[in-house]
Fold:
Amino acid sequence: MPIKSTFFPKEALQGQDLPSHVTWSDLKFDSIQIHHSTTMKLEELYNVSSEDFEISEGIVKINRVQVKGYVGLVFSTKILPEMSVHQLIEFNFIQNNKVIEKIEFNVHLFRPNIVIHKVPDQIVVNLTSGAITDKILVRNLGKGTAYIELETIKESELQKKRPEFFERFLHDFFEGIKLSMASLKQSFEGQSGLIERIESFLTTPFKFEKKALDELNNLEKDFQVAIEDDEEFAEALNESLAEVFLRSNEVSNLYQFVLDYVNSIGKEKILIRDPFNVVKLSNKPAKLRVKIRSIDLLKQMCTDIELPEVTVIANKESEIPIFKLFQWGK
Amino acid sequence: MGIESLSKFLKIAKKIDSLIEKSKKFNIESKDLRLKSGDGLLEYSLIAIPQTASNTKGKISFSDIDLHRISIMSYPGFSENQESISRIEGDLTKSFSLDVEKLRTDAEQFNFKFEIKCKIDSIVKDLVRRDHQIDSADDEENTYWLHAQIRKLKDLKDALRKVDLLDIPFAVNVAVHQDIKTKFPTRRRRELELIAKWAHEHDRNKKQLISMEHLKLKRKRPKEKEITNVLRDLQNLFIPFRFKSYIEVLKDFNYYDCQRGADFYDKIPFRTFPKWMAVISRTDLTIEKPVSKGELVYKKGLFQESIEKALTKK
Structure:
């Protein structure tokens, strides 16, 4: 067999770059023609000089490779109207106008798809028994993971806020972070730039907005590089964060954080940011107006969803985590 | 800080070649490059034949080049010739000079190895395109594809006889959140809720009522494992040497290490349990094999069984 190795991803998030290669030996051909969906775009081509390939709609034609036996490509993809599609990619080695080798790939491109399935006119909360009827049903119909942020909009009578214990924790946590990052900077001078960015990121407010997500993306990439290259630094950073977390907490709060961890994970690959945020209910009906923001694991923003007004009725005055008014997935 | 691109390396290599050639004491037979990602080093290796008519006296100074180390082997006999190397301390550079007189006179061939510090991430980015799967569509089994390919094969092939890019690192975030969630029973969540509520309550009477409710819950299953032990045993699953047993890296990649993944989305990292584990694997590329493909398999079922055990087994 002249074809030695081939690769195209079987599945990927919509918006992710797709790498590909073919290697061969003892194969004579006039050109390689790659047929791909027009929703993909050739991003990079390896081992082919700029005058030796042509691009037309959905076709990449390679007339010659530089070093025999290898061609490498990267296609970019974008978010599609369909939440899940299968696309075919075909590599044809052509000689004398005949296909002498054909390689086919099929890639599944998916994304999360957050939809609101049910919004009741009113939600009744029994703060004594913990019963809540009817909840707002949010589903992720797509295959991709979705990170959700809940916002109460200006017109909402019920406004989300952090619970008191969490404010206390945050105060101590921020102080702890500053001290611990300063000492980490001394031990890992080469990483001081990254440490400062982590410190600034952890101690300033952050929302799912384009600029902040781009910054987060860059920070995560650099963090990834640091843990790939310097395991000692990665370990020290992890330990420092864990230590600050423990020092900033009353032991009893740890149970609360385990609970928040469990509560932050919904069914259907829905992850909820800030599950600790609460709204203050009283025995007077109050209007709730919520906006749902979501991102996928490439930090691409999905369309914001603004929910219709809901009246929340409680039997007494108390705080309740806002996520509890929702059912996440089925 | 070290060099960060192929073009910078090639400039240094050219300088080294030119110093050796200008000395008129050796003919360079071949040039090899080895990137040792794990050590942050590029090793430029030359096979050189002594020129028969040349004068065996004199020194070759590499003072302009920031070198980490030089080593010399002579053939036949495979003997080291380190006594011929002396260190030169510059203001900003560290380098060496080679005393030709101290080399073995009967050697037919020398292998000079020049080690140069490099910025691994930058040089790997310049030489290699790395991609891996970010999210997995399958709920049952999680396999993440891994792919690496050389970007500048022709440049490498034109300049060098042999290229070994070793231990190119790949960090992949493996999602574990759904597994803990799926296995964490509702009654255990209720228990956590009661403990947290008790901790935040200041009213003594209300505290008493919560305690009673907790006791009632525990009486329903008197033999159930203590919640503190459950949390401890769950935590232990994320210790790297334990978690690695749920990971298998296949084909051209090898498992190297794993760590708790960064939960930057959550802003305040839940230091309780991670949502992701960052698994680091490595691969090698050469001119003859300019691509690597592989798979990282997360043994979800096995991990869920361990969560089950951590939740129930005393």
